[in-house]
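Let us practice reading a record.
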Amino acid sequence: MSFKRKGFIQIDELVDSLTGDQVQNVLRELGAPLETIKQQGDEIRTACFMQCGKQHPTGERAIALNCTKPGKVWSCHDYDCSIKKGNLISLASLAMGLGPRPKGRDFFTVAKRIQSILSGEAFEEEDSTARASKARESNEAETKPKVNIPFEENDEDRIRAIARLHERLTIDTEQMPPEVSRYVRRHPFLSDAVAAKWHLGYLTRSTGKGQSGGTMRGKFVVEVQNAAGKAVAFIGRDCEWEKKHAEWKGAAGDDKEPVKWAMPRSFYRGVEVFAQHRIFDPGDQEMLSRVGLVVVEGALDTVNLHERLGVPAVGLLSNQATETQVRRIIELAREVADGVVTLMYDHDVSGMQGEQKDTMEFAKYVKVQRAWARHEHFRGRDPGTLNEDEWKFIEEQLRCANA
């Protein structure tokens, strides 16, 4: 096939014929950071470089592209991304700011761009007026605020009914498979009272007539509420994740990386701060004054701090805060914690990396402290497993640092 053909382009055939090296070259020319492009077997991983409205830089393995499947399909593993998958055409189109599904002239422009990369020919871009118009449209789409509509306010009966999903959750270990039962027992703060308060528990795989748990079935499920305390989503923990992840790593990561927490595609995680509505209890003010507003990664990390340790905390549902979350946490810290933010992400590599980046961001506006970054004996731990004595040690260290 000649890459120098003018006019009509057999783009599907062209894309299907590309080798892994050629795909990497296309990604580089489209803007993928060179240092993040890595290939293992049939899969290429890279940080996201698309103009897709993302609110923060992604990890270096966010985009996974399969070099052998027709169309060179890719998927996105970033929680905030609302565009989860596509093919090389859609990826190139997003990188060029033309949206995920180019049509007509835009489609031809994307095809011509890919062809020019492979042939080494110069790419004749659109005129400046057209580019400026598309840039304005892209900026408007990116700046449009994302909002999670509460279940109870949704126009569809089917969606409103999801708000009652918590009534089908259980923490009775006898009703759970062994892996879920072990997960629950690892979190001794989980009780009937806590489950009722936080709307969490195991959702069985079996469903009654007219009931459907969707992707949440067979998972440990937690309800997410917005700043007004209204339910906007349910997220589900795969209690076999550790086993699946170990097997995935042992297989050199050739398959798709297992997902620890399943989240609905329609849910904008990055605009919510988990438990943000629960930190205004007057009884919490003393602790907030002593240690600041504690920020953790996970839902159960947050619940453990609240219920077992008496520490008002909020969660990101990720290992790095979005811009929206940063703004909201700063507002909360100034309102309830004398402008002090205490970061306590999981004490592992990804957690500490996210915490370090967020420290620099929060420090522009408020006082920031890292609860256990220098305490190596906590390595590998997460706040969801802390007991009272361990928290007392951490709290004392924080108070000494502030003295």
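A brief commentary: Residues 279 and 312 are 6 Å apart (CA to CA).
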